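ok here's Permease, seq below lol
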Amino acid sequence: MLLRFLHLSSSGLLSSEQVSLHRTTVQTYFHSGILMTDFSPPPSPDTITVEASASTGTIQRRARGFLALFFVAIGLYTLKGFLPALLWGCVFAISIWPLYRRAELRFGRSDWLPMVFTLAVALIFLVPVSLVGVKVADEARSALEWIDDVRNNGIPMPEWVPHLPFLSAQATNWWQNHMTSPQRLSHLLHSVDVGHGMQMTKQVGSQLARRGTLFAFSLLTLFFLLKDGDSVIRKCLLGSQRLFGEQGESLAKQMISSVHGTLAGLVLVGLGEGAIMGIVYMATGAPQPLLFAMVTAVAAMIPFLAWPTVGLVALLLLAKSSMIGAIVVSAIGSVVIFIADHFIRPALIGGSTKMPFLWVLLGILGGAETWGLLGLFLGPAIMAALHLLWTLWTEVNPRKGVYAEDKGS
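and the structure came out like this:
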């Protein structure tokens, strides 16, 4: 409009009244801030003009929401094979974040600090796995030698079989007829399907390769989460506040606290049980005490799962004619597992989130059944969020004496 006005006024095609009217119009457009829109070219006949309205804005918001959900869903589907690795990386980062922050405050922010912590986490897992692998290889060689000896000489009867308090004669007769005869044992060993064993070995190797790859991606995720942790935390808090308000931040903090409590209540308590039982295994002369101590520590990370390991060691001691050692392992193992599972573990996990023991137990067992080892951390975190929601939903307003959901009424 401004260019048209200047052209007409300079060419003398407008009268003085028209010039005054156009000048007033241009000034009005200038002060209202819409003058720049008049410099755009006129719409072509094919241009579709959409008028803004409340209904149009609602449709656009819904369309953006559906589009965002679509991309989130397609992204999760694309990464479904690596979601466990990403979740494990998040669990590692949440677990060691307080220690990492203290190290960062002491040594300063640097690029090598996340690498050091990532390598430390890798060694925590790789060193025990390597030791167990070496022990398993040695035991496999010993097992092959034992099988060859059994084929030639049979299995000698333990000294405690004739001294059983009941059915000793029947047990002795059965052992002499079935276990000490090389011919019977050779027939039993030849009946084992070697092809099935080879197939199982291939499956185990494939699973080890896959889980090793996922572990590598977990470490990679951990490195970047530590490196950019402050930015990730800030954006997560901002996103939770925008989506869920103040309660979103409370839920996030509750779930993080549950992960910290789970680390202390499952991993550290399990390692403590394994260390104590390892000393007991060595003192009683149990076979492979270091290997069984590691197995006990891993099994003890799940409540009540350390019992089979302790029972197996007791049976092995009993097979070695060490009745006293079997009784000592069973008694001390029962006391240690009972105290850890009923007192120490609930206090560490539930204490950080104020959850009852039943919620903690259901979260651990249900998470382990649904998600595997990852569920040991996800289960309590989910139950912590549900417990917080239940608490907020049913809490009483002390000023009005009504429940939380009735505050607005």
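fwiw The chain has 15 helices and two strands. kinda neat tbh
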